[in-house]
Write a structure and sequence with these properties.
Three copies of one chain form a homotrimer. Chain A has helices at residues 147-153, 160-163, 200-204, 279-307, 322-335, and strands spanning 8-13, 22-26, 29-35, 41-45, 59-61, 64-66, 73-74, 80-82, 99-103, 106-110, 134-143, 179-181, 186-196, 212-221, 225-234, 248-260, 263-272. With 340 residues, chain A is α+β, with helices and mostly antiparallel strands. In chain A, the strands form four sheets. A seven-stranded antiparallel sheet of chain A has the order 11-17-16-15-14-13-12. The first copy, chain A, has a four-stranded antiparallel sheet with strand order 5-6-7-8, with no helix packed on it. Chain A has a three-stranded antiparallel sheet with strand order 1-10-9, with no helix packed on it. In chain A, β6 and β7 (73-74) form a beta hairpin. Chain A starts with 7 loop residues before the first strand and ends in a 5-residue tail after the last helix.
């Protein structure tokens, strides 16, 4: 399938890379990645142009990769620097070099032409830089599902009551309408559930006993990054929308990496303004998130299978689909700019 | 592939259904089935028209199914009765409803339009209603094979000597010619092996020691139900064809459920006029049938694999193929009535 | 894919065949093979022309095969000799019969029309007939790879330093140029590494301590047989190319059997002029070869997977590719003689 190439995707957490050759597949492209002597991460096409052996099957010599078949050697920019048995190096002896940046312990890769990489597009949040906030990396969730469905699920507050009834949602929110703003670069869908019992998550974190006001804001940064801002505050405080920092506030971040049409990696992490510095709390949150995100995984994988059966009519669209619908339309326009 | 849709197929034994959601796939259609409060069985398209999640991943609330993704709720007729977060229900919010009937502890489903279902076409046998006969349900045999080959095997007495030499056949029958009658609605192939040693089955059930007359009648009810009437009587009685009830007589019933082009479920059961009420005998018969039907399974799965290899000439047809040939021609005509 | 049909392929070692039915797949053709009463090996199309059941699922009766479905019986020439239940045997009731020859405990099969089989084309070597030489059969290495890539690897001395650094090669040879002769029927690529430390293989066999002259000759007999002549002699003897018999000399033979586009069996064996009659040495050599050939397997399977990813440019060709390039061009001409 076609993908948005001119964008940063997450290739992995920083901890996933060292001075060994790691093969990753992103947008159906095979890429070999490794940490260079200077500590930065390199990314090259993972295929020798000679006999197509993945370079990740070869050997790292300094910052160069020697192919494991005939010893052709490429530097970290993809330039061939040695062809054993001959002196001249053909002009076609190179591999694609990808732009890579590391930020907040996350390794981003630009999947378009390296020269077109836009530094300012790398994802960031002010909360990463604040000592009032605590950041913690979770897991890499592998889903046998198309990334478009995974992303749409992340700008869709309406599923929470039904998919996550014991963790992130409960029956109180089933009929609460969803607000959507699709004007800006970032799509947003949100709703407040006012004066209702706290969900499992905020019974555990926040220690709320009486009713609370609870919010869910779903920010979708195209093509593949989602920020879910959710939290709670005592209902009698009647918190204003813009005062969410005064409640217990959590950001769940999802970095989606499309592997191929039916495979997506969702690397998720969280930031919070409570229990700062408390790694025990982080680990307990991970556990709750794991339960919830595996609920999504079950749904999304079942849909992927079902979509592959013969279909005789078009899916119907509901009021709650505004965010997903605009998301897919924008992705289509990014992939095929002529049709937008 | 194309199937005969306007027909009853077996969705399962009655015991397979209760007040939980069960996904079945028949003729490549995904269907969710469950037992309603009134005890009858419902069958709906197993796919929410919104995001395509199988409804079987949802929740049964009374007789309604609530989708596990966004809570759209369908009643047992497939009508949408709730869309959380909006008041109006779109006209396109429905799922297909299938006609279901239960008879003799077997659940039948009509795979065509429910309004076209023909009550009288549901399979029945007078012996089901007689207390001289004992009925017993066997297994659901899963075969990686096309249902047409499985059905043809059930109107084919000639294979018995070679595929089932120790259970249902023996060398005595190898050259005995097969009679075939393809005039009526039900195809019949049969042969009598007169004055020969009893096969394993009738050594065990019937207690025959000397030579017997043995018969095999294969009745194929299109598209997918077979009745194999077989039995034995002492050879010196020289039993007439129409007096088979005077011998030890067994009906093996096969209800074929085509799942897809390469997968068929064969639910088999048996009725007999001997050892009535003796469940120990039923269990011993099951054991013998299991051996025999697994012999068929091995043959039919090997053929299915072989058929997928490149073929350079057409299979040849023999005298024994009259039943199978007419069967396939009639199925073709039912699937493509214009070509008949 | 298309294959060279008019050629002898190895169906197995002699020890693989006895009086039981063995299914093999060669060039995507299913074949049933067995040893006849007279000790020779028969090979027939492994598919009954009636219902396509593999004959290997049937029964050997004398030298005839009785199909396991309806008992059609074929003699060892593929002629039908019995159709149970009918007297006449249709003219179309036959299966293809393949020409088979056994030589040096190897079973060869001619994949073209049996009448076109060319006796003189069966592979042979004078060393098989000499008591100065010791022959020993190794394994059947199964590779998930296209046979063309496997064959090209066998006329490619340049990969040895990189793929087999501890067994068959070492760094001393990395830059030594390769000679290639593609004039004759047999393609040859070779190189001498003069006055260098012995490789692991000849430290073990030969007991060389000081520097040696080492040679590798790769002979590729089209379509699918390779002879790798390699050896060593003390460097101060300065051995002439034609005097290789005076050193420790080993022939590694590879018989490639293409199963399908992505599966090849490489049956390998060795002959040597040292440690004649010493089966312990043979077993130790097997161990070393196994290590080395599994290194090839890892490379070739990784390439096969990588080739199936979307490719946007043509692979580049290097000076070392002369042998492989001519090999593939000749195979193309043999498969499509009109295009040559």
């Amino acid at each position: 399938m076609s993908y948005v190439r001119n964008a940063w995707y997450v290739a992995g957490w920083s901890s996933e890379f060292d001075a060994s050759l790691k093969r990753v597949v992103i947008l159906e492209q095979a890429i070999v990645m490794y940490r260079k002597a200077d500590g930065t991460v390199a990314a090259l096409e993972d295929q020798c142009p000679h006999r197509l052996l993945p370079l990740s099957k070869g050997k790292l010599i300094g910052d160069d990769i020697q192919c494991g078949y005939h010893g052709m050697t490429f530097n970290c920019e993809g330039k061939c620097v040695r062809v054993p048995g001959q002196d001249n190096i053909p002009a076609s002896a190179f591999v694609t070099n990808y732009a890579v940046r590391e930020k907040h312990d996350i390794v981003f890769i630009w999947m378009g032409d390296a020269d077109d990489a836009v530094e300012d597009d790398i994802f960031d949040l002010p909360q990463f830089h604040s000592d009032q906030w605590h950041a913690h990396q979770g897991d890499a969730l592998h889903l046998k599902a198309n990334y478009l469905n995974v992303a749409e699920n992340l700008v869709d507050p309406a599923h929470v009551s039904f998919v996550h009834p014991t963790t992130l949602g409960n029956a109180a929110s089933e009929n609460v309408p969803v607000h959507v703003d699709t004007e800006g670069e970032v799509l947003v869908a949100w709703r407040w559930i006012r004066d209702a019992p706290p969900i499992g998550f905020f019974q555990k974190f926040g220690g709320f006993k009486g009713n609370v006001d609870r919010w869910h804001y779903y920010y979708l940064h195209l093509p593949c990054t989602a920020v879910i801002d959710f939290g709670s505050a005592d209902a009698d405080r009647n918190l204003a929308e813009e005062s969410r920092d005064e409640g217990v506030r959590i950001f769940a971040l999802h970095f989606l990496t499309p592997v191929n049409e039916h495979y997506t990696i969702d690397r998720w992490m969280h930031l919070r303004n409570a229990a700062v510095g408390d790694e025990d709390a982080s680990i307990q949150m991970d556990k709750l998130f794991r339960v919830a995100f595996n609920e999504d995984k079950e749904i999304l994988e079942a849909i992927d299978e079902q979509e592959q059966m013969v279909q005789t009519r078009k899916p119907i669209r509901l009021a709650i689909d505004k965010g997903p619908t605009v998301y897919r339309r924008r992705i289509d326009a990014m992939v095929n700019p002529d049709y937008s």
